[in-house]
Design a protein that fits this description.
The chain has 178 residues and is an alpha+beta fold. The protein has helices spanning 7-12, 14-21, 65-73, 86-93; strands at residues 26-27, 29-33, 39-43, 46-51, 54-61, 75-80, 109-111, 118-120, 125-137, 140-152, 158-162, 165-169. The longest helix is centred in the middle third of the chain and has 9 residues, at 65-73.
């Protein structure tokens, strides 16, 4: 018979915790900053916060390069990836990729209209944000951005992340009933 760890031991086991958190399927986005030291990172912790004012949040590890870059830049971009963009998600999640402008050489990007932050071409949605607030959240910081611009494609399918794997959400409109 297998013994189940006490609740306190379960929540302090980071491997178990990561697997449990991974049961919440999420979309996949790439957060970006521009300027002299452009940078990007794959993020699955993106959430809409408010419609008035229009706000979204992204959570970034305090040890991540992006953490320092968002704080210094004061603005950032977010591109919500489409189903066919898994390679882009993997590229910006790779800790060993080229940094600086070189990390964008193999990815088709467009500069944001107001801030110039790199936005991923072909994304389901792309947002330019000014940093509105930030909050400590354990080993991450919760960055809240106030939307400056948005572009979106209503008719594509989404890239998802579930249990440590990428997947696709496909909406067959012929089977949707309202």
């Amino acid at each position: 018979m297998t013994s189940v760890p006490e609740p306190a031991a379960q929540v302090s086991d980071q491997k178990l915790l990561r697997r449990a958190f991974g049961t919440f399927a999420s979309g996949v986005a790439v957060a970006t900053v521009g300027g002299q030291s452009p940078h990007a990172m794959t993020a699955s912790s993106l959430t809409s916060v408010s419609l008035d004012p229009p706000l979204l949040l992204v959570c970034v590890a305090c040890s991540a390069i992006m953490h320092r870059r968002i704080s210094a830049a004061g603005c950032f971009g977010v591109s919500v990836l489409a189903a066919g963009q898994e390679g882009i998600a993997r590229h910006f999640a790779d800790r060993w990729r080229t940094l600086g402008p070189g990390q964008f050489e193999t990815v088709d990007c467009l500069p944001g209209r107001l801030t110039g932050v790199p936005l991923i071409s072909g994304a389901l949605a792309a947002f330019e944000c000014e940093l509105w607030r930030s909050y400590e959240g354990g080993d991450h910081t919760i960055f809240i951005g106030k939307l400056l611009t948005l572009d979106w494609t209503p008719d594509d399918n989404a890239l998802l992340f579930f249990r440590g794997e990428f997947g696709r959400f496909t909406l067959d409109r012929s089977e949707v009933t309202v």
